[in-house]
Amino acid sequence: MSRRQKRIAPRYLRDQKYRSFVVQKFRNIMTLSGKKTVSYKILYEVIEEISSLRIPVQIIERAARKVRPTVILKSRRLGGATHQIPVRLENNKGVRIGIRWILAAARSRGGIKIKDRMKAELLDAVRGNGGAIRKREEITRIAESNQAFIREI
Questions:
Q1: Residue 23: closest CA among 34, 12, 15
Q2: Count of the separate structural domains present in the chain
Q3: Which of 68, 90, 81, 65 is nearest to 140 (CA)?
Q4: CA distance linking residue 39 with residue 25, whole number of Å
Q5: Would you give the DSSP letter of residue 70?
Q6: Residue 118 to residues 10, 19, 114: CA-CA distances in angstroms?
Q7: Distances (CA, A) of 62 to 27, 44, 68
Q8: Cα-flanking dihedrals φ and ψ of residue 79, to 5°?
């Protein structure tokens, strides 16, 4: 019997203002160089701007759900060649990757302020277009073409 202890799943805290796990994850992933207060300020400004349209937390959660991938590609060497093997993801990891894609697409967008770029990317993700959605579709297409190598972790 193994002497190693079982891994305890991390407890995710809710955001203090909106009581949402996704908003908290968004803020944590968004943080650069340990500047959490800056990421709080930017995220809350984006939420305030979105709140004029609809319920803002639902928009953020829907965007994260739409962008969330079901598989991710991992490189493996098989028979002297490197293959992109699709690996199924659990829900939490998929949400984290989706949020990372939303932030990367927002940062690569043209525009002056990050809050304007994030707002546009979140609304595009909810509508079903934008850089993060394109990334998910591209990964899904490659995973379908490499279906012969699929396995589960």
A1: 15
A2: 1
A3: 68
A4: 11
A5: S
A6: 27, 20, 6
A7: 16, 17, 10
A8: 60, 40
Written as six digits, the tokens of 124 are 């595009």
pTM: 0.85
- Does the pLDDT at position 152 exceed 60? no
List, for residues 11-53, the tens digit of each pLDDT value. Answer: 778 888 888 888 999 989 999 888 989 999 999 999 998 888 7
The interaxial angle of helices 21-30 and 91-108, nearest 10 deg, is 50
Question: What six digits make up the tokens of 39?
Answer: 């990421």
Instruction: Tell me the CATH number at 139.
Output: 1.10.455.10
**124 is in which domain, residue-wise?**
21-149
- Please spell the DSSP secondary structure of 128-153, one letter per residue: T-SHHHHHHHHHHHHHHHTGGG-B--
How many whole angstroms separate alpha carbon 103 and alpha carbon 35?
A: 16
Is residue 124 situated within a structural domain? yes
Rounded Cα gap, residues 121 and 22, in angstroms: 16
